[in-house]
Fold this sequence. Notes:
Layout: H1 2-23, H2 38-68, H3 73-101, H4 106-109, H5 116-150, H6 154-185, H7 192-220, H8 223-237, H9 241-252, H10 255-286, H11 310-323, H12 326-337, H13 339-349, H14 352-356, H15 364-384, H16 400-405, H17 410-427, H18 430-443, H19 452-478, H20 488-491, H21 496-515, H22 526-563
Amino acid sequence: MKNNQSKGSFSKVRKLINVLKKSNGKGVIGDNSALISPTAAKILVYFLLLALTGALFAGVYFLQPYLAGVLSLEGITLTLMLILLVMSFVLALKDIVTVLYASDDLELLLPMPFSAGQIVMAKVAVVSEFPIGASFVLMNSICLALGIREGAGAVFIIGTVLSSILIPVTGIATALLLVVIIFRIFGFIRNRDILVAIGGFFTFGLTIAYLFINSKVQNGGTGKAAAAAVGAVSYIANGFPNIYFMSRFMLEGSIVGLLISVAVCALITALAMSAVRAFYFTTALSMQATGTNKKAFTKASLSGGKKNDALKALTVYESRSTRRNPAYWLYGFIMTLAWPLLFGITLVLGNLDALRLVTFPLDRTTALYCFMTLGIIASCFACGFNVLPGSAFSREGSCFGAIRSLPVDFRDYYRSKRNFSLRVCSLGSVLYIVILGILFLVAGFVEIKDAWTILAGVCAAFLLDLTLINLMLLRNSRKPRLNWDSETAFARKLGLVNIIAILIGTLLLAVFLGAISFMPTLQGTAFGHTILIICAAVGLALVLLAAAVNYFAVRKASQNLMRTEV
């Protein structure tokens, strides 16, 4: 009887896992939407995973003699363990927030015939599937290939298989414990979008650390440099008890190390599940209304206080309606200001050698090239990461009908959206170029007589901001999404113009870092004068483009809005 109940419980959890995976945007192998039968799809996927694992195993197995002369088995094992632990933690961090807190499904699941434990078990299984699967494939294929080729013995093989499960479970449990406690204690960051951002910044921190290590390897240019980098990572890995004691079991046959490593994993998992039982449901249910629901639109909200001018009043209304949604604070304000942390720092750190070749103070050609290029790059990132212009009219929802009934010129209505978005994007582009220019002047990197080059960069950033914002607004005016239950559903989505701007900014930043080291050698040459002419032509093109797009967008968007059906 108990066996039948356990089988029925497992079947319910398995079905719930598939449902949660689909509802959280995760693919289900062999679902009904597949072009081939579900059974054939599963067989194909498992066959491909097996082939990938075998290919990785074979590659490492045949490369082992070349690696053995440079890297030790212990160093590679510890490094891989640390990478998998961090990878599992990072991957789980965002998924835990999404699946456990951001899915808004508890109110639907609790009345169903599922126990609280089954719901939590299914949600944690959805989070754990990919990190554990990836760790299992990587750990076993790499370490088993090295261990078998070096004749490490059965203990090493057993430890490798156990590590491929225990290490990701430890990382996932740590992330689960951290998220549950943060959501429970720190009310000022309970908004789930903020924690997602924290996880993103943590990931970029890891990227920065990788770039430092990679820079050391490149600077060395020999196997000794790679061995030193692996040795540094191994030293850090030994600071984690589960990794240190499991490696002692794998390499030295220490049974005590195995027991301690298993105990560490079990302890962290038990603490995480205890925290989930104590805090998860109360906290998650209190956050179901985190998103902003539709609010009634009134003439009072359009009054703008003491300001009687229609355009100013509409701009004030736009500012107030945007600030009320936490998702727009993150994806409309914070991301616009934080783009240097996302792209600038990581790429600059990867090109420190090129930047060291730059001589100061910058000559006029180099300064003009730098500030105009940086102005364009800053505009691409500040506008690209901003969702406000691309959702400006969709945010109105059912209130758009009330706006149409008011005696408001649609051109003023459009300009209010444009002006507010321009102010926000200018904080992440124009303001940054001004601050950078002041720092360069104070530090003596740019001479006072060449200060006009800073103004050229500021103008380039402003003109491109105006162009990109108008394009986003015009695109949204064609077919605004007015029928929605929660703005959060589209508040996080980047539009086509956003993606293009980010791609252009990334490409220009890479080109800029690659070309800046050669600029001092071009001073006074014919090519240097060509750079001045190109910068002047780009500036003129930006002026004409911004003016034309702004004129066309105001007229066309107002016509689109007048024809929009409520």
